[in-house]
Write a structure and sequence with these properties.
CATH class of the largest domain: Alpha Beta
Strand order of the largest sheet: 5-7-6-8
Largest sheet: 4 strands, mixed
CATH architecture of the largest domain: 3-Layer(aba) Sandwich
Number of helices: 4
Bound molecules: zinc ion
Order of helices and strands: EEHEEEEHEHEH
Structural class: alpha/beta
Shape: extended
Radius of gyration: 28 Å
C-alpha cells in the first residue's frame, strides 16, 4: 500500500505579480519566478488587469508501507453450513501520534478499538473452546488502517480469503464497554448497533439477554 501525503503549495522565488506580455506574447520563467509551465508563464493572463501569480504545487509524497490484517478461522460443525462464513471484525490501529511538547502524544485507542480487538480475541478463544462449535464457519479478522480510510476492510473486500458470496454477515466490534465519562459517557451494560435496520441481530441479542438475564 502507498500512503499519499498532499504537498503544501508554495510560490517559487519571491512571489510577485507579473505584467502580462502585451499581445499575448510569451514571458520567461525568470519573469515569473519559474512556474514550470512549458508554454511559458507569461502566456496566460490572470484578472482583469492582466496580472497573474505563479504557484508551484509539488506532487504528493508517496511512501510505501506494509499493513497487515490478521485472520483466524473457526470451521463450522455443520457439513451443510460450514462453507458459509460469518465475519467478526475489529480494528487494531488508531491514529498514531499528535502534536509536540510535554505529555502523552499517543492516541492510545483503548476504546477505539483495543476494546473491540480484545473482545475479538476473547470471543475466538471462547467459541474455539466449545465442545459444540458453531454450525457456520466464523472468520475472525483484526483489521489495520481502519480508523482513517477503512483501508483494512477495503483490502479484505478486494482480496477475500473466502468467497464474499458465501459470507453472510460481518459483525464489527467497535468501542465495547466504555468506562470513561467523556463524550457520550459510560457505555457499560449497553449494546449499540449501527445498521440494525439491515438485520434482525438486535432482536436476537435482546431475546438472548432476557433469557439469560437471571444468570447475569
Ligand atoms: Zn474505530
Amino acid at each position: 500500500m502507498v500512503l499519499l501525503r498532499p504537498a503544501v503549495p508554495r510560490a517559487l522565488g519571491t512571489p510577485r505579480l507579473q505584467e502580462r506580455v502585451p499581445g499575448g506574447g510569451r514571458g520567461t520563467d525568470a519573469d515569473a519566478g519559474g512556474c514550470g509551465d512549458p508554454r511559458g508563464c507569461g502566456s496566460r493572463a490572470g484578472g482583469a488587469d492582466g496580472r497573474h501569480v505563479s504557484v508551484h504545487v509539488p506532487a504528493p509524497t508517496a511512501t510505501p508501507v506494509k499493513l497487515r490484517n490478521v485472520a483466524g478461522v473457526l470451521r463450522g460443525s455443520d457439513p451443510a453450513l460450514q462453507d458459509r462464513f460469518v465475519v467478526l471484525t475489529a480494528h487494531y490501529d488508531h491514529l498514531g501520534v499528535r502534536g509536540q511538547g510535554e505529555g502523552d502524544h499517543i492516541y492510545n485507542g483503548a476504546n477505539d478499538d483495543a476494546s473491540g480487538t480484545a473482545s475479538l480475541m476473547e470471543i475466538a478463544g471462547t467459541l474455539g473452546g466449545l465442545a459444540a462449535r458453531p454450525r457456520r464457519s466464523i472468520l475472525f479478522l483484526a483489521l489495520f488502517g481502519e480508523e482513517l480510510g477503512d483501508l483494512g476492510s477495503q483490502y479484505y473486500a478486494r482480496h477475500p480469503i473466502f468467497p464474499l458470496a458465501k459470507t453472510i454477515a460481518d459483525i464489527n466490534l467497535e468501542q465495547l464497554g466504555r468506562t470513561d465519562e467523556s463524550g457520550d459517557g459510560e457505555k457499560l451494560g449497553q449494546f449499540n448497533l449501527t445498521g440494525f435496520d439491515f438485520t434482525n441481530l438486535a432482536a436476537i441479542f435482546v431475546s438472548t439477554r432476557s433469557r439469560r438475564a437471571s444468570k447475569w
